[in-house]
Design brief:
This protein has about 375 residues and is α/β, with parallel strands linked by helices. Helix content is about 30%, strand content about 20%.
Length: about 375
């Protein structure tokens, strides 16, 4: 170790020793917080790439620190082939099909990340390749990045600053372009007013929680995220079935989609991931029914964790959503299609699902392995 390096480590080590002493002797929370903040300051500036080995970086936009992650390059050939074959299978069953690409967090141009950190990422290039191939093959698809650009939305504000998920506001926003696309392609006549923001009540909780990415850096460096409770002004009545959960069945108003205790003022900042305060009883292998719309469309949704803050809102305009997360699935994708006579099979996938099958140890390895037999 060089002398310069040793000198750089002296102050941070001393501060950590002081923190340990304070915690041991149970000094006040205020003193402990002051020392922790001090350790961040004297260590220079905690490096934005400190956790690069875990694939997490900090990007600064408009004075706000945002956690971000790069994506490896993939050809997209596997995903395209699987989606083409599965679309063909679905349409042969007399059902409609739509693949929806949800944008990655924080940028729509990969060069922005690459120039910022000097590290390549291929998230958008991968999605460009797959979406172009799907369109060439006439696979019905929708790229929400195009809607973000067309509407001039701020991609940085669509996601939590400390977590990789999109905000609840983004889940509600996505309902309109998806419903528009289903109406355009299949003449569904879905009522778009069901997704209009003016028909919802928004309650924002500031400094509410910190996401799993931000937790690596600590709230003293990255800050806390806000959380927004969104409720339809007309609550309605709903039915929920989860054959594998602790709560197997429930009928109630929109409150059944919210874990209010997790973000009550007295509980903040919450130790829970408030992204999952929506659909707190899970979505995998679950069925959601809108009892106010018994004759509406029935949707089989292949989703991921982004769908937690999408399903409660999209359900407002349809009769039923049966949700599947393939990384947790007990059946094959085709077996799910065979369960019921659905109007449409819809995929809503975060962009980073593209390429996950290149890595056998990835939690998302099976998400686009659609034609498997078991």
């Amino acid at each position: 170790m060089t002398q310069k390096k040793a000198q750089e480590l002296v102050l941070p080590v001393l501060w950590l020793l002081l923190i340990t002493v304070c915690l041991y002797w149970k000094h006040t929370d205020q003193l402990t917080e002051m020392l922790i903040r001090g350790s961040v300051v004297v260590s220079g500036k905690m490096q934005d790439d400190l956790f690069a080995d875990r694939g997490v970086y900090v990007m600064r936009k408009d004075g706000v620190k945002i956690t971000v992650s790069p994506s490896a390059e993939t050809s997209g050939e596997f995903e395209t082939a699987q989606l083409r074959a599965f679309c063909k299978y679905v349409t042969e069953q007399g059902m409609d099909f739509l693949y929806v690409n949800a944008p990655t967090k924080a940028w729509l141009d990969d060069s922005e990340f690459s120039e910022y950190f000097g590290v390549p990422t291929y998230s958008n290039a991968n999605a460009d390749r797959v979406m172009a191939a799907l369109r060439e093959a006439d696979v019905p698809c929708l790229d929400l990045r195009e809607n973000v650009k067309a509407e001039g939305k701020n991609i940085y504000e669509m996601f939590y600053h400390t977590d990789h998920h999109w905000r609840a506001e983004s889940g509600l926003w996505a309902c309109t372009p998806i419903a528009e696309e289903l109406n355009r392609r299949y003449d569904y006549g879905l009522d778009l007013s069901r997704y209009a923001p003016e028909n919802y009540e928004f309650k924002v909780f500031e400094n509410a929680w910190i996401g799993e990415q931000g937790y690596l850096f600590s709230p003293y460096y990255i800050g806390y995220d806000s959380f927004t409770e969104i409720r339809p002004k007309e609550s309605g009545s709903y039915h929920f079935v989860n054959p594998n959960g602790k709560l197997t069945e429930e009928t109630g108003d929109f409150g059944m989609f919210l874990a209010e205790a997790q973000y009550a003022e007295a509980a903040l900042p919450s130790s829970e991931s408030l992204h999952y305060a929506y659909c707190p009883h899970g979505i995998a292998d679950c069925s959601f029914r809108n009892l106010n719309c018994p004759d509406g469309k029935k949707i089989l949704l292949f989703g991921d964790s982004f769908s937690f803050s999408f399903i409660p809102f999209f359900l407002q305009g349809v009769s039923q959503i049966d949700a599947v997360i393939l990384r947790e699935a007990e059946m094959t994708p085709r077996e799910y299609v065979q369960q019921e006579d659905y109007d449409a099979v819809v995929f809503l996938y975060a962009q980073f699902m593209i390429g996950a099958h290149d890595d056998p140890v990835s939690a998302n390895y099976k998400m686009l392995d659609l034609m498997r037999e078991s």
